Amino acid sequence: MLPYTLLITLFSNFTTNWTLYKDAEARFSVKIPCETMRHSIQQIKTTIGEIAYHSFICEPKDANAENKVYIISYLDYPEGLMHPDSTELKNIMIDETIQSSASNVAGQLVYTDEITLKGVKGKLWRINYNNDKAVMKNKAFIVKNRLYLVQIATTRARSRNTEADIFLDSFSWF
Fold it and tell me: pTM for this one?
């Protein structure tokens, strides 16, 4: 009887309902623990001109959710800015994104790692912020002229949770 009770207890922690969210215009899909994602657009000024920064946000309603927020962001660099084989420029742009994401939350970069998805190289990184009480896990890829940024925010106590992995690992573009 005890093993059965333990098994039920273990699986009760994985009852989050996941939805496959797809956005045809943004050209991505991802599994989310919400019914949909809220989309917003912010115009940002850069050295290469004004760029539309798109954010898709999922905030679970449950106050005890493993992660506080799930975010997919993207921006399109001007056509012709990046040659398809320009891995050095793509690395510079992703590295600038990493530094910017740490700076935006006054956080410390804990690690970065190179990753690949669908043959495209990207980066995975973690930032501790809010006096080490909060964590952001991030992935970034540049596909043609589009930068995709995939992020979750959680508490440090819950920084190793499977729901973060489900979200981060389910992201794909089409």
Answer: 0.88
In 3D space, the residue among 37, 6, 7 whose CA is nearest the CA of residue 20 turns out to be 37
| Cβ atoms of 154 and 174 closer than 8 Å | no
First to last CA, the chain: 48
Domain parsing of the chain, residue ranges: 37-173
Output the tens digit of pLDDT for each of the chain's 174 residues.
Answer: 444 444 444 444 455 799 999 999 999 999 999 999 999 999 999 888 999 999 999 999 998 999 999 999 999 999 888 877 788 999 999 999 999 999 999 999 999 999 999 999 999 999 999 999 999 999 999 999 999 999 999 999 999 999 999 999 999 999
Range 37-173 has CATH code 3.40.1000: yes
